[in-house]
Write a structure and sequence with these properties.
Elements (H helix, E strand, L loop, with lengths): L2 H14 L1 H37 L5 E6 L2 H6 L9 H10 L3 E16 L2 E10 L3 H4 L4 E4 L4 H5 L4 E4 L1 H8 E2 L2 E2 L13 H6 L14 E4 L2 E9 L4 E2 L2 E2 L3 E5 H9 L12 E6 L4 H16 L7 E5 H44 L1 H9 L4 H37 L8 H27 L3 H7 L1
Parallel strand pairs: 3-12, 5-9
Antiparallel strand pairs: 1-13, 1-14, 2-3, 2-8, 2-13, 4-9, 5-12, 6-7, 8-9, 10-11
Helix pairs in contact: 1-13, 2-11, 2-13, 2-14, 4-10, 11-13, 11-14, 12-15, 13-14
Keywords: Cell membrane, Membrane, Transmembrane, Transmembrane helix
Membrane topology: Multi-pass membrane protein
GO molecular function: transmembrane transporter activity
Length: about 425
């Protein structure tokens, strides 16, 4: 018998039991769709993380106080870094272009009758360049502001939006022509002009019961590590240390939260090595470091390992559906063999041999699994596109995942169809006709 005839007969047999064939494909459909969707989501999470870290700026390194042990046993952040460490790195490490020491805190910001809690950064002017922030309005913190201990502030666009609109309603100074629901950050991203009422530059705000003049607003920066970089107040480091943190002067031994550094192009590893040696020498360390240096490469590698492991786990769980679908195919095919005993006996009586029967039932199993794989692929692709359209994840259909899932589903159909096909092929035609 020609292969084309076996194929036609397999199609006819499946068409005669459409509902049963459709139900048999459900497991394969769910398995394929799950695998493709999970891979797409996993890759989307990884791309989102990469974009967040890249928003920090190129070749940025972070020098953080304490190590894993000290941070684990203490409720407070260890204070092992001082301001002099930052200046030493800038002066003595050739692979570092600039340094931005930083003191972090949390404070309540009040504007007129609106108030909100936000993060407060005490920084130097180099922060703008090192961390790749851009100004949307006004100016950034200057050296003069730091020298004079000025009470000036730069606000993130999200914070400005919160202070101008209370509980989704426009404040007293906001223009009624401003589109409801369209935030200031969104307008800046879309390069839409801001209304005169959509700014706080030149206005006075209160931070921790101190009056500050707003001198600028940053462009949208996005989130990093779950922290909104557009919801913040930036003030001079001297002002942060003297007036917010409570230091009497910004002198020797002033603790900083961490130090960010901009390394020369493709010299992040060299900068990490040199800074590590310098810090160990400055702190007189002979054992375990009392600091930690993190580069973008290190963070991305860690995030990649985590997301890769989670994606693999999700794919493994989804692949169970493919196995369940294969068992369903074998079960239904065994039922089909028992129901078609007379057909098998008649075919053998008129000349069909062992191979003809085997091929026909294998073709039926492969058709069911391949068709289920195609439908599952379509559902999985639609799921990936839907997730990408409705969430911030940068999802993308993986051609490797599609090819792999379709190949696996076809192989599963072939594998689980062997036993029923062999059972059908081994039937004795006389016994089959008598039992009909």
């Amino acid at each position: 018998m020609y292969l084309s005839e076996s194929f036609q007969m397999a199609i006819a047999a499946l068409n005669a039991n459409r509902l049963r064939s459709a139900l048999t494909m459900v497991g394969i459909i769910i398995g394929n769709a799950s695998v493709i969707t999970m891979v797409g989501i996993g890759q989307g999470v990884q791309r989102l993380a990469e974009n967040e870290f890249q928003s920090l700026g190129p070749n940025v390194l972070f020098l953080i106080s304490g190590n894993d042990d000290t941070r684990r046993i203490s409720f407070e952040t260890p204070r092992t870094l001082v301001l002099e460490d930052a200046w030493a790195i800038k002066d003595q490490v050739p692979s570092v272009i600039d340094v931005a020491p930083q003191v972090n805190g949390v404070g309540t910001v009040v504007y007129q009758s609106n108030n909100t809690s936000t993060q407060v950064f005490g920084v130097t002017p180099s922060f703008l360049e090192v961390r790749s922030f851009e100004m949307a309005q006004g100016r950034f913190i200057s050296d003069t502001d730091g020298q004079r201990n000025e009470r000036v502030a730069v606000l993130g666009c999200d914070l400005v939006d919160k202070l101008l609109r209370q509980f989704g309603e426009e404040s007293a100074i906001a223009s009624p022509n401003s589109p409801q629901g369209l935030g200031i950050c969104e307008k800046l991203v879309n390069n839409q002009p801001l209304l005169p009422s959509e700014t706080l530059v030149g206005q006075q705000i209160r931070l921790q019961n101190l009056s500050f003049q707003v001198v600028g607003m940053t462009r949208p920066k996005g989130s990093f590590g779950g922290t909104n970089q557009d919801d913040l107040v930036i003030i001079p480091l001297t002002t942060m240390a003297n007036r917010i943190v409570g230091k009497t002067n910004l002198g020797a031994g002033t603790a900083v939260t961490f130090i960010s550094m901009a390394a020369k192009e493709n010299q992040s590893r060299a900068a990490k090595f040199q800074v590590t040696n310098l810090m160990r020498q400055r702190h007189g360390i002979t054992g375990k470091d009392d600091f930690e240096i993190r580069t973008q490469e290190d963070i991305l590698r860690t995030v990649g390992n985590i997301t890769g492991a989670l994606t693999l786990l999700l794919v493994a769980i989804a692949a169970i559906s493919l196995v369940v679908g294969g068992v369903g195919i074998m079960n239904i095919m065994l039922v089909s063999v028992s129901e078609r005993t007379q057909e098998i006996g008649l075919r053998k009586a008129i000349g069909a041999n062992h191979q003809d029967i085997l091929i026909q039932f294998l073709i039926e199993a492969v058709i069911v699994s391949a068709l289920g794989g195609a439908v599952g692929t379509a559902v999985g692709v639609a799921g990936v596109l839907l997730v990408g359209a409705t969430t911030p994840l940068l999802t993308q259909v993986s051609g490797v995942a599609v090819l792999l899932s379709v190949s696996v589903s076809g192989t599963i159909g072939l594998f689980f169809g062997v036993i029923p096909a062999q059972q059908a092929a081994k039937l004795d035609p006389i016994v089959a006709l008598r039992s009909a």
